Amino acid sequence: MLKYSCLCDLQAISEKGYVKRMKPDTFNLQKRGTIGKSVGKLRVNDAMSDFVVCRSHDHILYFSDKGIVYSSRAYKIPECTRSAAGTPLVQILSLSDGERITSIIPVSEFPEDQYLLMLTVNGYIKKVSMNVFSAIRSTGIIAIQLVPGDELRWVRCCTNDDLVAMASQNGYVILSSCDKIRALSRNTRGGVAMRLKEGDKMASVDIIPAAMREDLERALEDPANNKGSGPWLLFISESGHGKRVPLSSFNILPLNRVGLIGSKFSEEEGHLAAVFVVGFSQAEDGESDEQVVLVSQSGTVNRIKVRDISIQSRYARGVILMRLEYAGKIQSASLISAMEAEADDEQTVTAEDEAAAGVLVASQ
């Protein structure tokens, strides 16, 4: 039987500050191009904000737009069904008036050699040692200093051996080394991540693990023999389109550069919604084993196999992953690794076995 500390959960947060915890099998795998399934009731003028995969006993770090971080155990968020409205975050966290949670990070431990990398909407970046966040008071602590008009939007776990992939709303991408990002204290602003063009903002960030970095560096040395092969960057647009682009299509650059075009969009397609590094978990045929969960503004969810998403060039539009129709835009996306998906399947099977055993006992 699967231990409770290993159980896999989904946490969803709305822009108006409602949170719910659900099981991943709440949303079955679907083919790309489908409408998806509703995540449940949303208040008037509310929309989904973030959606993450976690373990029941993880510490969940909640980062706000004002640069404050709060902490709670995952199991303290009430588990509910897909149709439930959720719990107000103000009942769990000491949020100030108007403060919004913009990023959620599940953490199982706080080692000194790992960092939390933070990126703001206006393109400022820094990393802070993970152990700094091992004891967070109930009223929260400062994670990053912000200037007026900027907000903390993305937080990721990293080590100095990793690479970071950053993308802007207009589709520009920079790959850079995490060891080039200075480790700073909490009460600092950080440096410039990307030189943004007028009207552009940051859209997403993801980490390329050290093991995948070695594969990437080999592919960059011999791009002709690695055309189309993984790992890849998965691009997801606000209009529900997506594509995979080989990481070998991008050079490793210093920070504070414009970057390379990773995806182009028409006015009707909006902007880039999310970028993920995929292909770290691969099947025997060399294809990705991961799954991506897409959430629209109206709360519709679609769970898709990454291997079903086409591999295309940096300038291609992509294929339809989710038909939005009246669901607005893609609001958030999360990646589920093969290990987490397998744990979800085992958890479902275990529950079914236990239910069957209960029926047998009851009938005897």
From TrEMBL:
Any one GO molecular function term: DNA binding
Biological processes, Gene Ontology terms: DNA topological change
GO cellular component terms, A-Z: cytoplasm; DNA topoisomerase type II (double strand cut, ATP-hydrolyzing) complex
Family annotation (SUPFAM superfamilies): GyrA/ParC C-terminal domain-like
Swiss-Prot/TrEMBL keywords: ATP-binding, Nucleotide-binding
Top-level taxon: Eukaryota
InterPro entries found in the cross-reference section: GyrA/parC_rep (IPR006691), Gyrase/topoIV_suA_C (IPR035516), Type_II_DNA_Topoisomerases (IPR050220)
Name used for this protein in its record: DNA gyrase subunit A
Organism (species): Linum tenue
